[in-house]
Amino acid sequence: MTPAPVPLCDIQAQYQALRPELDAAVLRVLGTGQAILGPEVAAFEAEAAKATGAGYAVGCSSGTDALILALHAVGVGPGDEVIVPPFTFFATASAVARLGAKPVFADIDPLTFNLDPAQVAAKVTDKTRAVIPVHLFGQCCDMDAIRRIASDNRFYVVEDAAQSMGAEYKGVPCGTLGEVSAFSFYPTKNLGAVGDAGMVTTDSPELAARLKALRVHGSEVKYYHKHLGYNMRLDAIQAAILRVKLPHVPRWLAQREAAGARYDKLVETYQLHGFMRRPVAKADRRHVFNQYVVRVPAAHRDALVQHLKDSKVGVEIYYPLSLHLQECFAYLGYRPGDFPAAEAATREVLALPMFPEITESQQARVMDVCATYLRGRLRSAA
Ligand SMILES: *Cc1c(COP(=O)(O)O)cnc(C)c1O
Questions:
Q1: Whether the Cβ atoms of residue 293 and residue 276 lie closer than 8 Å to each other
Q2: Is the peptide bond before 319 cis (omega within 30 degrees of 0)?
Q3: In angstroms, what is the span from residue 298 Cα to ligand 1's centroid?
Q4: Is the CB of 184 under 6 A from ligand 1?
Q5: Is 236 helix (H, G, I), strand (E, B) or coil?
Q6: CA pseudo-torsion sign 32, 37, 39, 45
Q7: Whole-angstrom Cα distance, residue 93 to residue 72?
Q8: Rounded distance between C-alpha atoms, residue 201 and residue 223, angstroms
Q9: What pLDDT score does 380 carry?
Q10: 301-313: per-residue pLDDT in tens?
C-alpha cells in the first residue's frame, strides 16, 4: 500500500472543524446587506487588538496592503530609504517601492533568517525613514537591537508580522514591537481568511486615525479627501470568518509549536541531523512555526525537493531568489554576492509540511522520505 500524501498545508482541516460556525457567520453577513467594513469589521478590529495586545487594529484588504498603509501612515514617500531584508516575501520590499521610496537591503542572520542588526546599522543614512523587521517563518527579529538603531537615528520600526501572529520577543507579542505593524490573513497564515485580508496594528491614536482614512480613499468624512488614499478595505464576510477563527489561534499556535518540536526530534530519530539543519529558535522568543524551514547542502536541495514531490510530500522553497536579484529591482543596482547570507539561504532552504492539525505519523512519513533520499545518495556515492 502506498502511504497517503502529506500536504504542505491543510486549509480544509480548519473549515471542517469549525464548519457550522463558519457557515453561520457567512450567512449572518449575507443577511445584513453590509458587505464592506461596518459593524462586523469594527467588532473584529476590537477583538484582534485585544488578542495582539495593540492599542488599535485596522482591518484591510491584504498583508501587502497593510504594509503599504503602514509605511504611508508613517510618511514614507519619494526620497526616503527603508531598510528591508532581501530574504523575505516580495511584498516587504515592493510596498516600499510602490510608495516611491527606495528599498535598501540589509543581510540576514544565517541562523534565524531574520535581519541582522549589525547589517541594518551599516545601511543607515540621513534618508532612512524606516526599517521593516520581518518576523520570518514565525520567529521575531532581534528587536532590542533593531529598535535601538531606529531610535538612535530617529526612524520608524514597521513590523512585517505577516507570518508571525502570536510570536513573542521577551514575552511581548509581535504587532506591538514597533510603531506600526502589518499582518496578513492570507489562508496559509497563522490566522487565515477565505481570501485576501490583512490588518495594521499600532498604539498611536493618530496613526490609527490616519490608517482608517487611508484605507478609504483618504477620507474621514465621505467624499472629503484629506489624504491621497486607497481602496484597501476589509470585507465584512472576511471579518466574520476571522472572528470565528480568532479565539482558536492560541490552540493552533500551540499545535504548531508541538509539531515543530516533533520534527526536531524526528530529525534525530531518522539520523538526518548531519545533513539537515533544523530551525534555530532563540531562547528569548517564542517561535510559532508558520513554516518549518530546514537547510540542506545546496548540492542536494533541489534533488531532495524533487524526491519529496515524487513521494507526494508537500514541499516549498521560501524563497528561491533573493529580492535584491529580482528583475523588477534591477534599477537598484545590486549584484550577486552583495548579500551572502541571504543568497546562501536561497540555495539551501526548504519548507516541510506544517499546519496545526499535522499528525506525528504524517511528520514521520516526511522524515522517512527525506531519509530514503539520503540513503539513496550515500549508496550511489559508495
Ligand atoms: C504573506 C506575506 C505578506 C503579504 O501578505 P498578503 O496577504 O499575501 O498580501 C507580506 N510579508 C510577508 C513576510 C508575508 O509572508
A1: no
A2: yes
A3: 26
A4: yes
A5: helix
A6: positive
A7: 14
A8: 26
A9: 85
A10: 999 999 999 999 9
pTM to 2 decimals? 0.97
| Cα→Cα distances 350→78, 82, 140, 277, 289, Å | 36, 28, 19, 10, 14
pLDDT of residue 1: 67
Which residue from 186, 242, 316 has its CB within 8 A of the most atoms of ligand 1, so it is best to mutate? 186
Helix axes of 236-245 and 11-32: crossing angle, nearest 10 degrees: 130
Ligand 1 geometric centre to CA of 94 (Å): 11
Per-state percent for the chain, helix, strand, coil, to nearest 5: 45, 15, 40
CA atoms within 13 A on the CB side of 149: 24
CA–CA dist 51, 55 (Å, integer): 10
Q: Could you tell me the CA-to-CA distances from 293 to 144, 316, 319 in Å, in that order?
A: 24, 9, 10
- CA 91 to centroid of ligand 1, rounded, Å: 6
For residue 379, what pLDDT is reported? 84
Write the CA distances from 189 to 42, 162, 195, 206, 366, integer angstroms: 21, 7, 11, 28, 21
Specify the 3-state DSSP secondary structure of 100.
coil
Phi, psi angle pair for 318, to nearest 5°: -110, 100
Handedness of CA 157, 327, 91, 216 (dihedral sign): positive
Q: CA 181 to CA 158: how far, in whole Å?
A: 5
Q: What is the CB neighbour count within 10 angstroms for residue 8? A: 16
Phi first, then psi, for residue 259 (nearest 5°) are -65, -40
For residues 198 and 284, give the distance between their C-alpha atoms in angstroms, rounded to a whole number.
27
Residues 6 or more apart whose Cβ sits within 8 Å of residue 90: 323, 326
Protein residue with least CA distance to atom 6, ligand 1: 63
What is each CA distance from 327 to 224, 258, 317, in whole angstroms?
Answer: 39, 39, 19
Strand partners, 203: none
In a 3-state reduction of DSSP, which class is residue 157?
A: strand
Using 50 as the pLDDT threshold, list the residues of the chain that sit under it.
none
In whole angstroms, what is the distance from residue 116 CA to residue 376 CA? 37
- The SS3 assignment for 377 reads helix
Q: Is 349 left (phi over 0), alpha (psi -120 to 50) or beta?
A: beta
